Amino acid sequence: MAVNQPFPGRAGACADVAIVVLNWNGADFLRQFLPGVVAHADGARVVVADNASTDDSVALLARDFPAVELLLLERNFGFCEGYNQALAQVESPYFVLLNSDVAVTPGWLRPLRALLESRPRAAAVQPKILAHADPTRFEYAGAGGGYLDRLAYPFCRGRLFDTTEVDAGQYDDPRPVAWASGACCLVRASAWRALGGLEPAFFAHMEEIDFCWRLQNAGHEVWYHGGSAVHHVGGGTLAKTDPRKTYLNFRNGLALLYKNAAPGELAGPLAQRIVLDWVAGLRFLLGGQAAEARAVARAHWHFFQKRAYWRQQRRAARPHLRTAERPGNLAISIVWAYFGRGKRKFSELSGK
């Protein structure tokens, strides 16, 4: 249901782009960051899809942001299905998935759109993502472009586990990557629709990695463009140490690998992931984080309970490209590199 109407007569460099912010009880973030999104939209439509908020988000948007289109979703669908529901109602050649806690910068959108325009096979591209609290450093969720190791553990240029690098221009080069961050990502609408959007069973977390992996399996490219930058708060919905977040990350991590890995690259890595997950659960338990340990156990239980569904989704994701056929994949163990060998920078992993 659309409440506010598009601002009439808009034109600009990005008039064929719809910037879509999914909101749930984020009125404070909207007050802080939406004015900048509107000011630097560069001709793009700005849409807020509200996931049945119970705060004053809707009243705020209707009162203070008349140029913003508002879509009211009937209930809280979560991040994945919330975007699926919202984008099904938005007609535009390009979508930006933008978190409500992201501060955009002047001119941020043009380089992203230009990259997709110049590369017909490219279907998704993210900007450089810096920390809002300290814009000299990369931010956890996306940083300088997303990578995967041989067990499908995600990491980024500029961020390995909890270690983030200072941005000194070392990752300004545009390049194909394994995944683009859902915090800020420009997507080709035709590819989005062809793949059915985000995996709704994920609810939230790792959904963009799954989507980008499916894009690559379908023959598309995923890119990072360091000529564009945004600043991300991060952790706006679930705190980093929230057991719910732990549960989603561990469950979705197994599902991500199971759905998308090539046949010869599934059984061994999946078994190793399960072992490493239980090692992590034991570390939580010994560290006095019993709720986190239970979250890991529950994640595994629910993954195996739902294995018939994941098998169905795996069949739908064919063909499955091998690791060497997909950019942004390194044939290493990021866990061993970081915890065993003390590697703290992306350049120490790849020499790039």
TrEMBL record:
Organism domain of life: Bacteria
Keywords: Glycosyltransferase, Transferase
InterPro entries assigned: Glyco_trans_2-like
Glycosyltransferase 2-like domain segment(s): 19-127
Matches recorded under Pfam families: Glycos_transf_2
Family: Belongs to the glycosyltransferase 2 family.
Protein name: GT2 family glycosyltransferase
Species whose genome carries this gene: Hymenobacter caeli
